[in-house]
Amino acid sequence: MIDILSFLIFFFIVCSFYIISSLGLNIQYGFTGMFNVGIAGFFAVGAYTSAILTGPNYADTIFGGFGLPIILGWVCAIIVSGIAGLLVGLITLKLREDFLAISTFGIAISLQLVALNVESVTRGPNGLYALPKPFAHIFDSPFVSNVCYLIICIVVITMIYYALERAVRSPWGRVLRSIREDEVAAEALGKNVFMYRLQAFILGCGIMGLAGAMYANFVRFISPQDFLPIFTIQVYVMLIVGGKGNNLGAIVGAIVIWALWSASDSLINFIVTPDFQTQAAALRIIIVGMVLVLMLVFKPSGILPEKKHVSG
Amino acid sequence: MIQYVVDGLVNGSIIALGAVGLSITYNVLRFANFAQGEILAIGAYMSMALIVLMGVGIGSIGPVSFGWPLLVSIAFSIVLTSVTVLLVDWMLFRVLRRRSASRITFIIAAFGLSLIFRNIITLVAGADQMFLSFYIPKAIPVIGNFKVVPDDVVVLIITAICVVVLHSFLTSTTVGKKMRAVAENPVLAMVNGINVKSVIRWSWVIGASLSAIAGTLHAHVTQLDPEMGFELILPMFAALIVGGVTNVYGAVLGGFLIGLTEAFAVSMDLSAYRGAIAFLIMIVVLILRPQGILGEKERDD
């Protein structure tokens, strides 16, 4: 019983990182119609920021190991990822949407190369380890500290959810949706389309950075291998399956897809012999890709379609 | 030093041919095709498949370490890659066009497609590296001390032929002219009775053919692995943007520029950052001259 419970707790904690990323993407893609292909990159920025600020001092790095409080690490992760989003947005948001996609894709790849090669800060492929986890020094039992962590996750998700719900229902959110639907019309009504897009983009990137930081302080070890493009695709599948433009959909989609992903993982380990693990892993990614493409073709609005708001 | 320049030009021709495919999809179908790298990889693996089936190696002509078997397999790969791409267009992009889906939907679909292709390659051919032959580049002296690898020269010649053929196709054939008309203004083209559907099919075939050639040449001078397309996509996008998205020759120019810069980076011992360097050049161009070197300011449509 306790095994199942601790598995469920673990499952929902990891799922939380996807939920938060999916909510961050929803503000960019779901509400404003911006295609960010660098989710893994902004997630990594948050993870490394928190790891460097809160982590221990390693013998082989020249920068980092500040041992700051975790909450400070998370706040800085939001800020640094937001700044990364600001830089990308400033350059590309005035251009055709393809350029944003290409640039965010490039950012994610470049950041991975930096994480892999700037060993004096990131320890390269060896990664940063022994990162602090909240409550881990208070409770010896990993079960209790995981329960605490799950509570933190739920609190954070609730806060983000309500903040985003308020934001998208506000006049600000209405402008975002109007930009998504018809950019020229929004511009004609005197809205500074670029500024609104930039704000939404920075907000989304900051949220993704927070997800990365929470991931780092939970698994306590990060390396460039954790931030591959498959992560970006997973988050897209979650948001599109759940329902883009619907914050509850973003959450539901993340849970559903993460459950399927975890279940297939256990299934592969259970029935596939080690010789065919590579093929099985490839097959699983093909299925995820197929789900994405099929959703785009047959049900682009997702499980929980966007609600139509009528003002007044 | 001269070897770095030659390496840069060879790598650049592969990026250039791939970027032409990107440019055509971008201008005719109007989206950034994230699956373009995988189309190159499919082209390479199709050639590999025929070479394995024929079982006679890749032949040789004089000092060049490949001959008719490789050329035959390229022809075979051009056909199969084109068929694959047309099939995907029919199953996926045609449906999205009919629903007049947003451009973002096309890009996401292409991004998903690249992941699917990449993993189908892993599933069918395995994740390990493969080689078309036991090719070891050997430089021979041309004039005095100036040495070149014969295969590198042939790759450059093939690229030059492709660009010339493409140019005459676009300027002298009816299909080519129609294609330029659709790229210029799809609605006006349609009003004038141009069959946009056939233009779209031709665009895919030309992009796929050039990709099959580029992918096979790339496989010949380096190796095959499922990630090969993924590693080429960022340099190709960079080439497209640096050269100017609206100009197909810009993609060629951009390809060579990116290839040379990457080779320069390797010579500076920065090979670990190769992917990031293409990206950096792209960002600089986006800041200074967003329309690219040869591009015109885009109408937003």
H and E order of chain A: HHHHHHHHHHHH
What fraction of residues of chain B sit in β-strands?
under 5%
Number of domains of chain B: 1
Main β-sheet description of chain A: none
Q: Look at the structure and give the mean pLDDT of chain A.
A: 89
Strand order of the largest sheet of chain B: 1-2
Number of domains of chain A: 1
Number of strands of chain A: 0
Q: What is the helix/strand order of chain B?
A: HHHHEEHHHHHHH
Share of helical residues of chain A = over 70%
Strand content of chain A: under 5%
Largest sheet of chain B: 2 strands, antiparallel
What Rg of chain A do the Cα atoms give?
A: 20 Å
Distance between the termini of chain B: 46 Å
Tell me, what's the shape of chain A? globular
State the gist of this model:
The complex is a heterodimer of chains A (312) and B (301). Chain A is mainly α.
What does this structure look like?
The complex is a heterodimer of chains A (312) and B (301). Chain A is mainly α. Chain A has one domain (8-228). Chain A contains twelve helices and no strands. Chain A has helices at 2-31, 39-54, 70-92, 97-117, 119-122, 142-169, 171-181, 183-188, 193-219, 229-242, 247-271, 277-298. With 301 residues, chain B is mostly helical. Chain B has a single domain (2-288), classed as ABC transporter involved in vitamin B12 uptake, BtuC, CATH 1.10.3470. Helices cover 72% and strands 2% of the residues of chain B. Chain B contains eleven helices and two strands. Chain B has a two-stranded antiparallel ribbon with strand order 1-2. In chain B, helix 2 (36-54) crosses helix 9. The radius of gyration of chain B is 19 Å and the shape is globular. Chain B starts with a helix and ends in a 13-residue tail after the last helix. The relative contact order of chain B is 0.20. The interface between A and B is large, with 44 and 46 residues.
